[in-house]
Amino acid sequence: MGFRFQKSIKICPGFRLNLSKSGVGWSVGPRGAKLSSGPSGTHVHVSAVGTGLYYRKKISPNKSKASTGGSTSSPAIEDYDSSIYNHILEHAEGTE
User: Fold this and answer.
1) What is the mean pLDDT of residues 7-23?
2) Is the separation of the CB atoms in 84 and 76 below 8 Å?
3) Can you give the pLDDT at residue 77?
4) Residue 7: phi, psi to the nearest 5?
5) Model's pTM, two decimal places?
6) 1 in a domain, yes or no?
7) Angstrom distance (rounded) from CA 52 to CA 32
8) Which residues, other chains included, contact 89 with Cβ-Cβ below 8 Å and sequence gap of 6+?
9) Strands 23-28 and 33-38
10) Does the pLDDT value for residue 6 go beyond 60?
């Protein structure tokens, strides 16, 4: 097993910039419900806070390192991403 590197920087309440060996990503949302995007794709995270139980679902493909100039996601996935983001923000008010 090799060494791993991961650093999370809190930009503002509910928004983090995540740095790792594989690249840069971001996450947004309150404790227990996050939307994140990075080199391994876009994910939704839901957890029972304080229990260690969580669910993670991938909602978009991995980001390509050698992009040919086109988008890596379809418009339907982008619409889905924004609807989840809006849902998380609606429920985030007053939780942090």
Assistant:
1) 93
2) no
3) 46
4) -140, 130
5) 0.59
6) no
7) 11
8) 28, 29
9) antiparallel
10) yes
